[in-house]
Here is the input.
Amino acid sequence: MADITIYQKPTCTTCRQAVQALKDSGKPYTAINYYERPFTKSQLKTLLKKAGLAPRDVLRTKEEIYQELGLGKKQLSDDELLDLMVKHPDLIQRPIVEKGDRAILARPADSIKTLL
Here is the structure.
């Protein structure tokens, strides 16, 4: 059985709910605060590929940094978006949960059950 990894921000309500769902499941998991251990570009690219998501699919459009960078008005490539997401982790929707060759954006938090 593949181990579960949750990439999260501990102060995020949805992340806390997802971590609680993992605890309740009794399955072993690893929680990674991606503000303390930032994503590499290749790691984030691989996670999104596993989830079947494009970088634009996981952009936090209500974040101040999204507005400051004018991302709603720019047509950026996936590589450019990944570079920005690595540099500014607030741009990434969370939590992202990985198990083996699958990953999901666990929003809402109970969608995590699809990996359990």
Notes: The chain has one domain: 4-115.
